[in-house]
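User: For my dataset I need records formatted as: sequence, then structure tokens, nothing else. Please produce one.
Assistant:
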Amino acid sequence: QWRFAEYGGGLVQPGGSLRLSCVVPDSTLNHYALGWFRQAPGKEREGVSCISSSDGSTILADSVKGRFTISRDIVKNTVSLQMNSLKPEDTDVYYCAANLVRRLCVTEFRAHEYAYWGQGTQVTVSS
């Protein structure tokens, strides 16, 4: 059973930046769209960004547009989430996962379509 590995979280001041990375098995990026989600205790998992396997196109949630960027490195089998201008409301545990239904991302982040969730990495934005 695959389980992705996320890393790069930490404590950062408002306005700061972090770069999250997710290591995936070989060929994953060629076959599945990859998504980043976040979740706070007691809340539903929220889709943040997605990158398509078919053409590398990306989707960003409205709450992070203009601040976050998703990218992939097929050689290194890594998907990254560059987070700039962080806000306290970005504080969450961030997860990456593979969409087993689609190769092309859609604006609706349907968490039930995703699998191979990692343990997550904590991002805390606080002064």
